[in-house]
Design brief:
single chain, alpha+beta, four-stranded antiparallel sheet, globular
């Protein structure tokens, strides 16, 4: 499974200077919970996203499951930084689904 995520296949979904390789990352969104506390919600599975220096040529809408954590926690802050560079992998697979979007 990890090999599959680390191997990049050229794709027409992303257009960049000579590179057309999407990267696998978890989506992160923020929201307020019932107690008016800010949460960071991470998709439970990574999705292909265009690198920052490219533009989307094609996209699709899918329903995703998210696991939400209090944004103020130090462990959540680490996950926020980590999700920008690589998939969060098995860290979220077994977690509860707090949001479907």
């Amino acid at each position: 499974k990890e090999f599959c995520l680390s191997y990049m296949v050229p794709s027409e979904q992303c257009e960049a200077e000579g590179r057309k390789q999407p990267v696998m990352r978890n989506i992160m969104i923020t929201r307020l919970n019932d107690k008016n506390e800010e949460q960071a919600c991470f998709s439970k599975t990574p999705v292909a996203q265009c690198p920052e220096d490219s533009k989307k040529a094609k996209s699709e809408v899918r329903s995703m499951e998210f696991h939400c954590l209090l944004k103020e926690l130090q462990s959540t802050q680490k996950m926020i930084k980590l999700h920008k560079s690589k998939p969060l992998g098995d860290k979220l697979q077994g977690k509860s689904t707090d949001l479907v979007q």
